[in-house]
Amino acid sequence: MKQERLEKVNDRLPPGDKAILMMKYIDDMQIREIGEVLGKTESAIKMQIMRAKQRAQLIYEEIYGQDPIE
User: Fold this and answer.
1) 3-state DSSP call for residue 11?
2) CA distances from 55 to 8, 39, 63 (A)
3) Is 13 in contact with 52 (CB distance < 8 Å)?
4) pLDDT tens digit at each of 70 positions of the chain
5) Is residue 28 helix, strand or coil?
6) Pick from 4, 26, 22: which is nearest to 13 by CA?
7) Residues near 24 by Cβ (< 8 Å), separated by ≥ 6?
């Protein structure tokens, strides 16, 4: 996705979603590390990342139509 589109989607994400996606994809943290920082299990972190990605996809589709995020 183009940088501009990613920024628009990111601006509309809830703070918790934005934080966990940034830890995973910008800071390149492992699931285990994110769990340690947030005090959650690896399973909970995986679920939170999945839900954040789903919300990002929905926001993208609201703004740009059915084009895939990638």
Assistant:
1) helix
2) 13, 23, 12
3) yes
4) 588 988 999 999 999 999 999 999 999 999 999 999 999 999 999 999 999 999 999 999 999 887 555 5
5) coil
6) 22
7) 31, 34, 49
Q: Tokens in use for 7?
A: 């920024």
Q: Which residue has the tokens 């609201």?
A: 62
Buried b (16+ CB within 10 A) or exposed e, 27-64: eebebeebbeeeebeeeebeebbeebbebbeebbeeee
Query: Mapping DSSP to helix (H, G, I), strand (E, B) and coil, where does residue 47 land?
Result: helix
Residue 69 token pair: 């995020």
